[in-house]
Amino acid sequence: MAASVGRVALFALNGCRAALTPRWFGAQIARAFGTIGFLSLPVVGLTAYFTGAALALNIYSGGDRFSAESVMPQIVALGIARELGPVLAALMLAGRVAAAIASEIGAMRATEQVDAMVTLSTDPMRYLVAPRLIAAVVSLPLLTVVADVIGIAGGCEVAVRLLGMNAAIYVANTTAFLNPWDVESGLIKAAVFGFIVALMGCYHGMSAAGGARGVGRAATQAVVTSAILILAADFLLTSLFSRL
């Protein structure tokens, strides 16, 4: 266990060094942005919409027991901005992107393409890992902004169409209640989660061994470890932010 943690920590340090210092491969970074960010928009948007809608229904029915239905817009906005937006976007990214990264790099490892890069004096950390880390750290906060907007809109639509609330009052309550730190804390979490997703995908891909079976195992491990670390990091960050 300690050895595994040490290997991941060293890999993370090397990845950060490659991402923060030249030389950068612009084409690889742009490609990673498209794969990680743009192509993840549909799944993140749909997840956020239905989560916001379901959250609104549950909070309304729960508040109805205490005659507190009027606080539903505020709780939906706060829950999505602080927790559900970044966490659900990260989990969707873990399922879609971490497995893809691990599979792609694992296949390159299995077919000795990574060794060929080293032979040609190309650093795999700079060419394969750094672009994905950069793209994930930047893309996930942007996806979280989209998830926040769509999730709150989903809650608003349910409140207006199914629960008979006034749309103008719902929007006014939401905007008056949310403060900048609620959104900013979620975006900080999203950046950390993006780093975790890309790191786990790259690490397990680079560690893949044993042919096609090893590549499949690496993809599975990337998704599982990403999800666990995302939830653990969310707890730690929430604990930290609650003291600020």
Give structural notes.
With 244 residues, the protein is mostly helical. The protein is built from nine helices and no strands. The longest helix has 39 residues, at 72-110.
Describe, in short, the structure shown.
With 244 residues, the chain is mostly helical.
Highlighted features:
mainly alpha
Q: Could you give the distance between the termini?
A: 33 Å
Strand tally, please? Answer: 0
Which series of helices and strands comes N to C?
HHHHHHHHH
Proportion of strand residues: under 5%
Radius of gyration: 20 Å
Report the biggest beta sheet as strand number plus sense, adding barrel if it closes: none
What layout of secondary structure does this protein have?
Layout: H1 2-20, H2 26-36, H3 41-64, H4 72-110, H5 113-119, H6 124-161, H7 167-177, H8 180-206, H9 211-241
